[in-house]
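# nightly structure sweep
# worker-07 picked up a monomer target from the shared queue
# config: single-sequence mode, recycle default, output format = structure tokens
# input follows
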Amino acid sequence: MNQESAIRPYSPLRDPWLVAVWPGMGAVAHIAGQHLVEHLRAEHLGVIETGPLSELDAIDVAEGLVQPAEAVAGQLYAVRGQGARDVLVFVGTQQPKGKGLALCRVLANRARSLGVQRVLTFAAMASGIHPTADPRVLVAATAPALLGSCREQGADVLQHGQIAGLNGVLLAAAAEVGIDAACLLGEMPFFAARMPNPKAARAVIQLFGRLAGIPLSGAELGREIQVIEKRQIAQFDKLRRASEGPEGQEFVRGLGAFLEQAAGLEAEGASPEEDEIEGVDTSGLDRETLARIEALFEAAGADRSRAAELKQVLDAHGVFREYEDRFLDLFRTR
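# output follows
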């Protein structure tokens, strides 16, 4: 990673924190990170390219011609004078295909050299929340004191589970170099995992603002929230109607069971176990993978040409046998 040539010199930072985000489920992290950059008058410091730390596992083709490989990169910004401290914001362009821990270790060491005192990442957590409900923000941290601070500002503790991607891996890398770190996860509807979710992002932004002592309301996301919420309600109602007839019961069986159980959970940071989707042993899958599988089942139900993509994902995670009956139902004459 050639940060020194990519980042221009800048003045010292005041008790800085680092916020780092990469694309993920519901685009929650990316929306929240971009919001900080756009609405806190962030200063662009430069581009960080991962260089040899990224791996290539596919190539792009356009009209028969192989396109040049694009380096995985991220934009680094500085927010100054907005509250009790300055904030560095790293916005990653994409999740790398490999060597994620090595990349995060470089970023964590760079943060330590800049005097960063705390690292925060943003992510999403899928649950049975209704689109009109106020999302929770859950937290996982590397230190009890930081966990307590997040709880004091309204976060619920993530009692169990996984945080996929670099939004989670960076916490481990920061801990290795002695920096306390936490991930703030915005709650979003499980069935709408492929839709952007500015409502969950706003909840994350607001909690981060309280932690950092920076006034942040996220009010600028209001219009986007209204548009997405209407789409989510329509999708939710469609799934509910489908579940009322015999033709749709099999299609929504797993998702319906998830929603029914999640609806009864107390707001203690708990969330349903991945292996509690009825009739399917999913104990080895993280929530983002489960959300992707459910979204692909929905897409294949409407367009059977998507079934090949679904089959590929199920095979890649070694769970086709668990989902086989449900998959075959896509092709049975109703």
